[in-house]
Amino acid sequence: MLVLRSGLTRALAARTLAPQVHSSFATGPRQYDGTFYEFRTYYFKPSKMNEFLENLKKNIHLRTAHSELVGSWSVEFGGKMNKVFHIWKYDNFAHRTEVQKALAKNKDWRQFLIPNLALIDEQEFEITYLVPWCKLEKPAKEGVYELVIFQMKPGGPALWGDAFRRALNAHVDLGYSKLVGVFHTEYGALNRVHVLWWNESADSRAAGRHQSHEDPRVVAAVRESVNYLVSQQNMLLLPTSFSPLK
């Protein structure tokens, strides 16, 4: 019996002392404070996008009275046309529920929304967290934005997070582009990371990209991260007239 107890004690101690795998990319600390970002993508019928944006511009104050609009963009290049992308910030899920209830009771908002829904062809929503090592940055002047969507291999940030972070930092530290935010999807396609960049223009973005491809420091960092990559999509975004991020 003493031998059995001794063996059991050692086994439990070994389990207790087993090293834990952590990743600096994990979203845990951000999840604890509750704050998350909702990515909303709207696909419009041909020729209807501008009409919707003009109507929304006149009424956006009704919506932003309840939660923060981080940014609003139309998609210039990459994927389907007639597409608008929004990022909304919420304190937690209870906050989002309160916002939806308040909007449902707002007569002015309903008067705008109901007829304009007919202009929308399709909608897509995702819930994301800003990764702990990245603060949401606001560029000092107007420009263009690039949203890069990375679909990573299963295994989560503990598998690919550190290599991915090094690849991004190589571009930032060497001044090839300005990082606005890095978001990890919680609801939507899992193992998906959204990276939002800012550049002065589409031409400056192209020049920086070409230079980075010839920089051995960037190439080395990216080469490591692509081992975990399944697919990548790049979209050039133009801020709408009412977007807080210009």
TrEMBL record:
Stretch forming the signal peptide: none
Alphabetized SUPFAM superfamilies for the sequence: Dimeric alpha+beta barrel
GO biological process assignments: mitophagy
Gene3D superfamilies: 3.30.70.100
Gene Ontology, cellular component aspect: mitochondrion
One Pfam assignment: NIPSNAP
Organism domain of life: Eukaryota
Domain NIPSNAP: 37-135, 145-244
Family the UniProt entry places it in: Belongs to the NipSnap family.
Identification of the protein by name: Nipsnap homolog 3A
Native source species: Lynx canadensis (Canada lynx)
